Amino acid sequence: MRIRTRTAMLAVAVMLATTGPASVHPHVFAEARLDVMVNPDETVKALRHVWRFDDVFSSTVLMEFDKNSDLKLDDSELEEVSKTVFDSLAEYNYFQLVTVDGKDVKMKPPAKLMANYENDQLLILFESEPAEPLKLSGKIDFGIYDPTFYTAIDFTEDDHMRVDPMPADCTREVIRPDPDTAIAQNQKTLTDAFFNDPAGTDLSKIFATKLELNCKAKR
After folding, report:
1. What is the rounded distance in angstroms from the CA atom of residue 93 to the CA atom of residue 78?
2. Which residue range is the domain that position 210 belongs to?
3. Most-buried pick from 49, 67, 74, 190 (CB within 10 A)?
4. What global pTM score does this model have?
């Protein structure tokens, strides 16, 4: 495991962890919500993300960042959590998956992340924008994935992936790949290195839950 920050074991370390073959499976779990905000000209305005982490990981974050030991995270402590996570996720594009007809779309880094702690769970919220105007045309996929395989962030309900407003000339489907099928379909692109140590190969995106929009080509 490699860790870039002063927190030796937590939020940030988890996000940055690179694990070996014996431990390549999720250690941290979160439920996600994604809202694709659309402009009147049917370009993507922003992606709004909310991640709610599991109780075990959330309690560990509380223990690490609760500097005054009052069993809660005050504003300054939450600011430290958000800054730590923000810095740690930068090299992973904040776990975002955005493609048009299978090609990656560059996203601007979010201006900031917000951390909250409620009902004994850590929440991370942020908003990002495409680096260039992104027209809803063709097949567009949106999702979240961790290339290190350490964090499982998933959408437990299909309606947790929304488009607002939904263009009339687009159809929407939530894709939940079966792992065995995904591997079989991508066998030619999966190298021995992937099977020996998939962490960091950037191929975990084939297992990610995706919001797929199919929109008529715009002239």
Report:
1. 22
2. 11-215
3. 49
4. 0.82
